[in-house]
Structure formats: C-alpha cells, structure tokens
Amino acid sequence: MENGSFKCPECGGQNIKVPAETKSLEGMTGAICVDCSREFTKDDVIAQAREVAINRVRDAIQRSPK
Ligand SMILES: [Zn+2]
Fold first, then answer.
1. What burial class does residue 40 get, using C-beta atoms within 10 Å of its C-beta: 0-12 exposed, 13-18 middle, 19+ buried?
2. What is the pLDDT of residues 19-33, one digit of tens each?
3. Fewest beta carbons less than 10 Å away: which of 1, 33, 50, 62?
C-alpha cells in the first residue's frame, strides 16, 4: 500500500508519518499527520483502507473492457 493514498481525517493533509517501516495495515496505527499532529487510530486506518479498496475496485471496473 502506498502511503500517498492515506489522508489525514482531520485536515486532509497527506504528509503522514508512519511510526515504523511497515507493510501491514496494523502498522499504520499510530501514524501521525505531520501537518496537525493528528494520530491515526485503528478505526481511522480501517476507514482509510476501506476507502482505498473501494477506489481500486472502482478503477478496475472502469478499466475493464465491456
Ligand atoms: Zn492533519
């Protein structure tokens, strides 16, 4: 997952500081927005991941030949 797809729920900023190098969703918990210092809760991470997943599926559907 690219970090660029994560957005701060508070200010919409995309400068998200991930606590440790991680490839897992759980690892994103505790990530901090550089702009407003909002900390990502587990719920935030899940909500964002769901949004990203929906967008990816939507993209795939639009790109698939009819
Ligand atoms: Zn923020």
1. buried
2. 777 777 778 889 999
3. 62
- The answer, yes or no, to whether residue 50 has pLDDT greater than 60, is yes
Segments making up each domain of the chain, as ranges: 3-63
Residue with tokens 């939507």: 58
Helix (H) or strand (E) holding 59: helix 42-63
How many Å lie between the centroid of ligand 1 and the Cα of residue 64?
A: 35
Backbone angles phi, psi at 16, to 5 degrees: -105, 125
| C-alpha 60: how far from chain center | 19
Question: 58 C-alpha to center of ligand 1: Å?
Answer: 26
> Which tokens belong to 52?
């990203």
Is the separation of the CB atoms in 28 and 15 below 8 Å?
A: no
